[in-house]
Amino acid sequence: MADSQIKQVAVIGAGAMGRGIAQLMLQSGLSVKLFDLDSDMLDDAQKTVFSMLDKLVSKGKLSEQLANNARDALSLHSADDLHPCRDVDVVVEAIVERLEVKQKLFTSLETIVPDACILASNTSSLSVTGIASVCDKPERVAGLHFFNPVPIMKLVEVIGGQRTAPDVTDTLSKLVTSLGHVPVVVADMPGFLVNHAGRAYSTEALQLLLETVTTTQEVDRILKAHAGFKMGPFELFDLTGLDVSHAVTESVFNQYYHEPRYRPSPLAAKRVEASLLGRKTKEGFYTYPRDTNDAVVPTDVPDTLPTSVWLDASCQQWGDEFVATLHSLCNKAGISVETADTPSSDALCVCAPMGKDTTTTAVDAGLDATRTVAVDALFGLSAHRVVMISPATSPAYRDYAHALFAQGNYPVSVVNDSPGFVSQRVLAAMVNLACEIAQQGIAQPDDIDKAVTLGLGYPKGPLAWGNALEPKRILTILENLQRLTGDMRYRPSQYLRRRVALGMSLSDTGTQASQA
Fold first, then answer.
1. Which residue in the list 195, 245, 314, 480 is annotated as catalytic?
2. Which of 22, 59, 96, 338 could form a disulfide with 310 if both were Cys (CB 3.0 to 4.6 A apart)?
């Protein structure tokens, strides 16, 4: 049941978000006044809400009595006259994403609603502080950002503006909990939490594509197989629409005064210009209807194995178990592993860099680059295997490595030279951005992980992932990426640096200075 302080709610806007919010409130026992300028939109919203209530009853998730009560508790109103809001406890607006329109609505509502009424915006991108700046009582204005579809997506961002009273965010958080959803309290910063935290996955994937490290299909395959993402970044772009994703990235980048971590990709801009937007235009990074075979790793594997393998010292930095796995792989294939300090003249040289490319690793170790390949050890060798070549790697030794790591019928992706392969770059960027969000106090560490798993559907929260992959390794990957690329997008967050130096968990907020 809904929070006892809240009895009546007004929802302004009867589009997809507004009707979803209305349904959630109704099925939780609240009375809802639904407003829109379009009477047809109101009628359609009512039909949709009632239909969804019927479905809940048929599935045994809502009693017939509660459904009937919910139907009776919904009233429809024209947004031309907001006076029915005079007795509501909370107003939630879900109208067009234009600052001046929302400001005009809230200033009108202030002359009507009770003094204790909370004014909440469902904005996904606008400044809550900016919306509240025209209000006489900005302390009662907050963000209440639901995700679509509202009844299913459990996460709700509760955003306090610069002048929002703490008891307002507390009340909204309790309301969200009473609705059966999960609130996370977020500071009013660009992108809030979810849209902010999601930038790393998408921008780093586009950077890999821009650098011609590999193809869209391979990036998606690697990240789904290695890290367990349900969708690869390019599949996700096609689902949400590249125009939408690119616009959000540009917005966050500009609002952060061109912070390099959020830098948009010129490749995305060009594809938007060409209307290669994804599913809605039938063509994006994939063509629709999509050929499901494009998600399958090609099975054509070279059949010639190397005569011997020499393991570079970089393999040992991933631990004895990883080195033992490499030995076992070679032994099962009938290939000897050389134990001399330097490789023989025909050995396949295998390295396992951490945030470095094959070129740098081969040169630093004085290896013959034509016979040197790298393998990604971040997630071990238990699933999809990624082999990285340098521009100098000979085709024969590239194929030797492919054949070797495909032993046991494992899928293999062969990628071009890139500091940090694919997974190391993307995961390190994600963890680093989450650390910076924590450092800026935008949200608490547990809430960051909670929001990312619920709002973005990631297999793990980024801070929990950083802990699992070892914070020191993440830091090393980032330091090497920044050193080799010279790109400030990879500079490690101070939050990460300090916790690695102190041996602390990334989920640990640490001791805070007392406030006077």
1. 195
2. 338
List, edge to edge, every strand of the sheet that includes 348-351.
336-338, 308-311, 348-351, 372-375, 385-389, 412-415
Q: Which of 145, 181, 384, 402 is catalytic?
A: 145
Q: Give this prediction's pTM.
A: 0.95
E strands, 63-152, are: 74-78, 90-93, 118-121, 141-146
Mean pLDDT by 10 residues, the chain (516 residues): 78 97 97 98 98 97 96 98 98 96 98 97 96 98 97 97 98 97 98 95 98 97 95 96 94 96 98 97 95 70 96 98 97 96 97 98 98 98 94 98 96 97 98 98 97 96 98 98 98 98 97 78
Neighbours of 425 (CB within 10 A): 26
How far apart, in Å, do the first and last CA atoms of the chain sit? Answer: 39
Rounded distance, CA 393 to CA 351, Å? 13
Q: Tokens 């096609």 belong to which residue?
A: 238
Residues in the chain: 516
| Contact between 389 and 373 (Cβ < 8 Å) | yes
* Residue of 93, 157, 204, 235 with catalytic role: 157
Catalytic residue among 28, 31, 124, 432, which? 124
Q: DSSP states of 157-187 as a string? A: EEEE-TT--HHHHHHHHHHHHHTT-EEEEEE
Annotation marks residue 246 as catalytic? no
- Sign for the CA dihedral angle at 247, 251, 252, 257 comes to positive
Query: Is 58 labeled as catalytic in the residue annotation?
Result: no
Q: How far apart are CA 497 and CA 15, in angstroms?
A: 45
CA 503 to chain centre: 26
Secondary structure of residue 347 in the 3-state scheme: coil
Amino acid making up residue 303: D
CA 303 to chain centre: 39
Whether 117 and 36 have beta carbons less than 8 Å apart is answered as no
Q: Which residues of 144-163 are buried (b: 16+ CB within 10 A; e: fewer)?
A: bbbbeebbebbbbbbbbbeb
139: DSSP letter: G
| DSSP result, 49-82 | HHHHHHHHHHTTSS-HHHHHHHHHTEEEEETT--
- Cα(78)–Cα(83) distance, integer angstroms: 10
Residue 124 is among the residues annotated as catalytic for this protein: yes
Active site includes 195? yes
Token match 């912070």: residue? Answer: 259
- C-alpha–C-alpha distance, residues 308 and 95, integer Å: 66
CA 336 to CA 330: how far, in whole Å? 7
> Side chain identity at 272, as an amino acid letter?
V
